[in-house]
Structures are given as C-alpha cells and as structure tokens.
Amino acid sequence: MVWSPEKTEVKSWNEWDTLRHVIVGRADDCHIPPEEPALDAKVPEDSDMRGQWGRRPQETIDRANELLDNFADQLRKRGVRVDRPVSIDHSQPVTTPDFHTDSQFGCMPPRDVLLTVGHEMLEATMSYRCRWFEYLNYRPLLKQYWEEDPKFRHEAAPKPRLTDEDYHPDYLSDKIGVEKRLKWAEEKFFVTTEEEPLFDAADVLRFGKDLVVQHGFTTNLKGIEWLRRHFPDHRVHTVNFPGDPYPIHIDATFTPLRPGLILNNPQRRLPEEQREMFHKNGWEIVDSAQPAHNTPPPLCYSSTWLSMNVLVLDPKTVCVEKSEVYQAEQMDKLGMEVVEVELRDAYAFGGGLHCCTADVYRDGDCEDYFPNQ
C-alpha cells in the first residue's frame, strides 16, 4: 500500500525507514519541575538546575517554539505530514493518593512518552512524578488516529504508583560525585528500584523484530520485562552503558542510522558482551563525533551529547542540529545527506531532534535485522 498524506495510518517498525508522518512537540507552558527523587538523581551536583523550579521565562518559551515551528515547516516542505500536541496546563500540581508535586513538565519531547511499534502507539509509564499526566498533551492526536485508522492500536502501560519505594534513597544526596555515580552505573545500581515496572519510551530503539532497551534511571528491569510480555512477537534486549553517570534515555548514546550502522557515544560505549548480537549480524558500531559545544545551554537537563540526537528521515538523509558541525561532517563521511536544523535554544525544553519528535508512519515492514542470534 502506498502512503497517502490524506489518509491517517499509524505504522513504524524502526528508526530509519522513510519518515512520512510525525509528531513535533511544543514548548508551550514548559516548567522546571520541583525537586523529586528521579529528577534530583538526574541533575548534576554542579548544575545551574539545582534549586530551580517554576515556569520557564516566556521569552525562552517563545524562542523554543519559533525553532520547533521552523523544524515542523522544514519537514512539511520535504513532504512529511506533521502533527502537534495540544498543551495542557503544566502549572497544575500532580496529586495522587501516593504523592504530590507542585507542577508538571511540558510537551516538547513526545519521544519520551510515546512508543510506536508497528500499528501501535504505547504510552509509557514515565518515571518522574511531574510527568504523570504528560500523555494528556497527546490524547487529542491519538483519539484522531484511532478514529481515522481502523488498524491503529492505542495502548497505555499500567500507571505506576511512584511511591518512595520506587527510588533508592542513596541517590538523594547532593554530594555523590561522578566517580561514585560511574561505579554505580557499572554495577547497574540506578535511582529506580524494582518495586514496579517503569519505563520511558525514549529508552527503546526499534530494529524491526528486535527492541533494544536501556536499563538505567528511567527504565528498570521490570519495565523491560513488561515490554517483553507486551510485545511477544519481538525479541527484547537489555543494554546499559557503564560510562554514563546519568543514564536517562538511549538516544544521545546509541543511534542507529540505517541497517548495519550505529553511532555510539565514545564516552558511553556498549559493553563487549552486549555487542555480540550486532557483530554476529554484520552491524558496524562507530564512535560518534565529538560535540561542538563544551557545555549544554542554560537550565538544560541534557548533556552536550545531544549532538548525536539526530532524526533519520530515510537511510540516506538525516537531520542534524545546525551548530553541531562535527556531527554533520561525520554524517557526510558516512554517506548521509545532512539537513541542518536550528534547535539548540530548545534543548532545555526536553532534548534534541529525536527527542522532540515521535514517529506516526514510516515506510517499510517488520523485518529481521538480526537473524543470527
């Protein structure tokens, strides 16, 4: 069947087939959330984010929205259908019988919340209390897809309780230090416990019949097991990256570009024993180019390695942030056409080009890229 922009169809099996329909986030009403266990563990001890919370300044919201709108227009001009979320009021508190937090986060990074696997879009559990209701920003779109596409499956993972039992209190100290964090990461000791299944959608990479999931701060082993049971026709693989002291989301660490080729953050290399599946099937894992910046933008949760948080439009075309010149040079050497996208001033709202998008439709079917297992 040939894709038509007039007909809604949800389908995406991997990270690289030709992108036809996508959601691009918004910076509307984005807040820096109050302190909470999962969030505190993510923020470095010397970060300007420490002790900050409240609505982000309007001029920064306007600038981020300008860049996101421009990115959406760039995609439309390339023939991609683009949808946008409908922002809820993120100043509202989140209160359940188990916890209370005074504000929410935002709707810039749909990739964190929505996982598209084939004809299904799955709402992740989320691991931050402030992001409990974030799925509501996308419900109008999912309602529309469900009404227009009879094959579309709208699923939601069980909402966790997110009590204090979900988090290791060892991570609540503001004097842990990077050395201890790296030791804990190597030991696979993260802020999240195994109290109940937890996962963020941005910890999952799709390789046709195989799903690769990062075990870290936002996804625990029970969350990975839940995904394994939920997708019984897929092979679900657990990975971790010992060099990352703040392991949240896989898409600034491990980036598939096309069948047979993956970029890996050189500071967070995939362990040798976990590379076997890729090597046995002829995949090449290459170190990513260095970031062009020494520090992240102000009030940004992410590291400088958003340089490799790219959006693949097809196996020969990739969107790279405009200022990330070394990443663009590497993509060119790897045979990719580079589409420059200015987005750095929106990084603080939830991430880079991969983060701020969520697939709705890509060409191609569910293939087996790892027959030798």
Automatic annotation (TrEMBL):
It comes from the Bacteria. The keyword Transferase applies. It is an enzyme of class 2 (transferase). Its EC number is 2.1.4.2. The keyword Transferase applies. Keywords: Transferase. The active site is at residues 200, 249, 355. GO terms for biological process: creatine biosynthetic process. GO terms for molecular function: glycine amidinotransferase activity; scyllo-inosamine-4-phosphate amidinotransferase activity. InterPro entries: AmidinoTrfase. Residues 34-53 are annotated as: Disordered. Belongs to the amidinotransferase family. This is Inosamine-phosphate amidinotransferase 1. It comes from Shimia thalassica. The gene is strB1.
